C-alpha cells in the first residue's frame, strides 16, 4: 500500500513537470563561446506558464524585461543587481530581456513563448545600444529559425 502511494506521488510530479517547465538562464561575465557579459542561454523557447529563473552565477548583473516591447497586456519584471529572479511567463509572445549595467555591452536575451514571434518586428525596431542591437540580430535570427522551423 505504501509503495502504491509513493508511485502515485511520483507520477503526479512527473505530470506537473511536463505541464510547466523551468528554464534556467545564467548571468555570466564570460559565455561558453568566450563572449563577454551574456545570458546563457540567450534565446529561450518556452510556453506560457513556464518559469524562467535567472541565476546570478557571476556578480554585477540583473535581469529585467524591456517593457516598451512586451507582448500586449502583459506585465514585465525587474530583478535587482546580483538577485536571482524567477518570472512566470504570462502569455504567448516574445520577451526582450536586458541586464541594465551591461545593456551597452550587448547583454540581452529573448524568450519566445508559444512559438509566437508576432512582436519580434517591434523588438527589432526598438532603439538600443549598438552592441545590443548587433547581438540581438543573431538572437532574432535564431528565434525566427526555431519558431518557424
Ligand atoms: Cu550584466
Notes on the protein architecture:
With 149 residues, the chain is of the alpha/beta class. Helix content is 29%, strand content 28%. The strands form two sheets. Strands 2-1-4-6 form a four-stranded mixed beta sheet, with no helix packed on it. The mean pLDDT is 91. The structure holds copper (II) ion. Copper (II) ion binds next to loops. Copper (II) ion (CU) binds next to loops.
Give the tags.
149 residues, alpha/beta, four-stranded mixed beta sheet, 3 helices, 8 strands, globular, binds copper (II) ion
Number of helices: 3
In whole angstroms, the N-to-C terminal distance is 48 Å
Task: Describe the global form.
Answer: globular
Unique bound compounds: copper (II) ion
Spatial extent as radius of gyration: 17 Å
Extended strand count: 8
Please give the share of residues in helix. 25-40%
Helix and strand arrangement:
Blueprint: H1 2-19, E1 22-30, E2 36-40, E3 43-46, E4 51-55, E5 64-65, E6 85-88, E7 93-98, E8 108-113, H2 120-125, H3 130-148
Parallel strand pairs: 1-4, 3-8
Antiparallel strand pairs: 1-2, 4-6, 5-7, 7-8
Short description:
This protein is an alpha/beta fold and 149 residues long. The protein is built from three helices and eight strands; from the N terminus they run H-E-E-E-E-E-E-E-E-H-H. The chain has helices at residues 2-19, 120-125, 130-148, and strands at residues 22-30, 36-40, 43-46, 51-55, 64-65, 85-88, 93-98, 108-113.
Amino acid at each position: 500500500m505504501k509503495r502504491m502511494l509513493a508511485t502515485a506521488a511520483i507520477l503526479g510530479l512527473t505530470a506537473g513537470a511536463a505541464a510547466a517547465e523551468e528554464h534556467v538562464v545564467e548571468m555570466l561575465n564570460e559565455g561558453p563561446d568566450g563572449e563577454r557579459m551574456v545570458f546563457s542561454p540567450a534565446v529561450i523557447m518556452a510556453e506560457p506558464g513556464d518559469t524562467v529563473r535567472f541565476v546570478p552565477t557571476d556578480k554585477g548583473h540583473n535581469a529585467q524585461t524591456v517593457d516598451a516591447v512586451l507582448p500586449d497586456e502583459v506585465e514585465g519584471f525587474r530583478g535587482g543587481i546580483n538577485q536571482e529572479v524567477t518570472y512566470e511567463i504570462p502569455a504567448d509572445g516574445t520577451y526582450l530581456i536586458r541586464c541594465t549595467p551591461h545593456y551597452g555591452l550587448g547583454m540581452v536575451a529573448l524568450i519566445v513563448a508559444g512559438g509566437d514571434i508576432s512582436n519580434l518586428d517591434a523588438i527589432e525596431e526598438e532603439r538600443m545600444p549598438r552592441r545590443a542591437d548587433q547581438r540581438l540580430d543573431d538572437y532574432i535570427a535564431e528565434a525566427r529559425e526555431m519558431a518557424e522551423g
